[in-house]
Amino acid sequence: MKQRKSKILRKTNETNVELHLNLDGEGKGDISTGVGFLDHMLDLLSKHARFDLTIKAVGDRHVDDHHTVEDVGICLGQAFKDSLSDKKGITRFANISLPMQEALADIAVDLSGRISLIYNVKFNVSKIGAFNVELIEEFFEAFTSNAGCNMHINVPYGNNAHHIAEAIFKGAARALGEAVMFDKRSKGVPSTKGML
Q1: Is residue 195 part of a domain?
Q2: Of 43, 109, 157, 187, which has the most beta carbons under 10 Å away?
Q3: Nearest alpha carbon to residue 108 among 121, 119, 93, 89
Q4: Are 190 and 94 in contact (CB under 8 A)?
């Protein structure tokens, strides 16, 4: 079986990102983006998806965190798409309802090649520490656009912003981890079209 691994290098005038992804890993994360809260969320994603993920990123944080967060999302999406290759035998669809104390995140994903992010999340604050909560949507927009998937993120309730963010990233991790798993009953690409 082909190893589902990928390495992405992205260097622009705003950021320099090196990312390694192994979809069939053990949940080992080594994340250093300079954005502490993003590092924490990506460590959760790696752990709960059981992906091995290494990210080294340097960005123009004297401007703000936007370019770094977006470019890490772009690179993770590209690595995800590259690692999946022709998608033969994968589960493709997954959804999970994940609680984090008083907050709940409902995440559904389809690795169809169709790109869409539905993001119904309300935060009571604009920042978690120094991290702008708007960047969570930016991250997932960049990821889905480059991974070639559609993802629905709905948070029906929750008060603590950190809990809401954690529920989103853990839920996305569990949904993505399940969607890339091999279905023993599947003989090819999980689509009547014969390709994804």
Answers
A1: no
A2: 109
A3: 93
A4: no
Q: Which residue's structure tokens are 């770094």?
A: 68
- Per the structure, the count of domains in the chain is 1
Residues 115-150 pLDDT 10s: 999 999 999 999 999 999 999 999 999 999 999 999
25 lies in which domain range? 5-179
Q: Name the residue type at position 153.
A: I
Query: Is 140 contained in some domain?
Result: yes
According to DSSP, the residues that pair with 29 across neighbouring strands are: 53
Is the pTM value of this prediction over 0.90? yes
Q: Does 189 map to a domain?
A: no
Domain harbouring 146, CATH code: 3.30.230.40
* Amino acid type, 177: G
The CA-CA-CA angle for residues 124, 69, 7, to 5°, reads: 145
Helix intervals (H) in the chain: 36-49, 66-84, 134-147, 161-179
